[in-house]
Amino acid sequence: MTEESAPEPGFDAKSFLAGLTRHPGVYRMLDEDGVVLYVGKAKNLRNRVSSYFRRNLPSPRIRSMVAQIRDVQVTVTTTEAEALLLENNLIKQHRPRYNVLLRDDKSYPYIHLSQHTYPRLTFHRGARKKPGRYFGPYPSTPAVRDTLNLLQKLFLIRPCKDSFFENRSRPCLQYQIKRCTAPCVGLIDPLAYDRDVKHAVDFLEGRSDQVMRDLVAEMETASARLEFERAAQLRDQITRLRQISERQYVSGEGGDVDIIAAALEGGQVCVQVFSIRGGLNLGNRALFPSLPEETSGEALMTAFLGQYYLSREVPPQIIVSHAPEEPDLLEEMLAMQRGHKVTLAWNVRAERARWLEMAQRNAQMSLATRLAGRAGMRERLEALREALELEEVPTRMECFDISHSQGEATVASCVVFNPEGPLKSDYRRFNIRDITPGDDYAAMHQALHRRYTRLKEGEARLPDILFIDGGKGQVRQALEVLEELQVEGVMVVGIAKGEDRRPGLETLILSDERGPSILPPSSKALHLIQQVRDEAHRFAITGHRQQRAKARNTSPLEQIPGMGPKRRQQLLKHFGGLRGVSSARVEELAKVPGISRKLAQQIFDSLHDD
């Protein structure tokens, strides 16, 4: 079968395998809907794929997957290393349920040094298209923020945007608190500023010893010239730099190294990544891949390394807690990514062993914390089941809230929780329009109708419980929408605020015949309901503030039909700004080139409709 072939009912494995090549490549197993179940690579495609269709498969997971196969698609590659690279790209693209999946798709942050007479150091994430130099990647945003903060204290490199820099007539607050040398107003010459930039670059590249030697020589020169104030400043700078370097330096490690440790327990996994660049520990990050059943530490490490470095810079050396499967092949693939040799190591000694042990300890602690949180979530869900007298523990809950300022920029939020907690990928916001400002009932009705119309069309599954932040009126709107859309099996619960809006005094408005219910303040079920309600409230307020800010930054001329960018520009230029346009009469507006009498009247009416 080719890549263009469509899945067919049933799957004739025997005839498919008879024509399958023995070259290296990648195979994809699809179900009856054409959804990719699994992606794998093989040195010999026929041998590898045929192993799935033998009797007495050892794993229940594999037997379940094979029973769903309706098509197998293959892509032949030149080498096995190319197959491994393609396999990881396809896993990232299709996210098959039977593969190990790395959920972290965010690009890692960098520090950017701009091209300028007085360069700027700043946080950067995303494509590295701006001219200048990039340092990193750093494992987390706090690591970048901390490093930038240190660089400002040590070397006083400006953090401000070029537009701010070019329009200063006097030093800003950064100069007053000794975080900048005020190059914007010429308080430092370019040569001195370049020297500070060079020191900052040396520090970022791990040459802090060289920086200290330069500063010591500069201090001695200043002292010899009797410039004691300057010498004292350099002395303090050297002291701070030495303290920071001692805290950040990884003893016994030079160059660029990643240390990766995995902890597996209870079907869950945590992978800790420590990044060392130029001998400096840039920090660490905890990742939680999705793990199929019966996955070994070796298989996990192989899948993780392949996916993790698809869109990241590969260091020359990677120290891992579990020996990956086919390490030579993995090294070859990573070398293809990097363009130079890459070494994997796991049986390490001395200082490296201590760093690997620290990474493993961090992974175990992060996983224990995550499992404890999930255990607490299970307890609260069971308490909620008992409190609401449900037959089963709910597996999906949604909560709606409305936010506005006296009817302005009304936004509805929908947050989703499952047994693992917030499911942020399913969150939604709804900008409410065409209602009477301040009508919360109409806003709730519109949001619910839009949400559940989409769910009926198959966007996502329906919730077991629908929470509404509000009382009987809001619950009535929810019931009307569900009845109108013929949605059944969803329990609606209103969360009415208690006396003085104090937490713990909420009244639950149930959609069945039981009437209002008040749970004790110590109830775990109530704590879960409060968490869901507060998250909906937070998400709604954030959306409302964004819409309000957007509306207030929008010219009222943009709302007038027929007023394109050129006409707006011509009008503002003619009258010297919006205030002049607002005070103009219809006859004056009509004299502007491109503005007809009819459009002038529309402009006048729009600006004076109050």
UniProtKB/TrEMBL annotation:
Location relative to the cell: Cytoplasm
GO molecular function list: DNA binding; excinuclease ABC activity
Keywords: Cytoplasm, DNA damage, DNA excision, DNA repair, Excision nuclease, SOS response
Record InterPro entries: GIY-YIG_endonuc, GIY-YIG_endonuc_sf, GIY-YIG_UvrC_Cho, Hlx-hairpin-Hlx_DNA-bd_motif, RuvA_2-like, UVR_dom, UVR_dom_sf, UvrABC_protein_C
This protein's GO CC annotations: cytoplasm; excinuclease repair complex
Main localisation: cytoplasm
Assembly and oligomerization: Interacts with UvrB in an incision complex.
Protein name, per record: UvrABC system protein C
Source species: Ectothiorhodospira haloalkaliphila
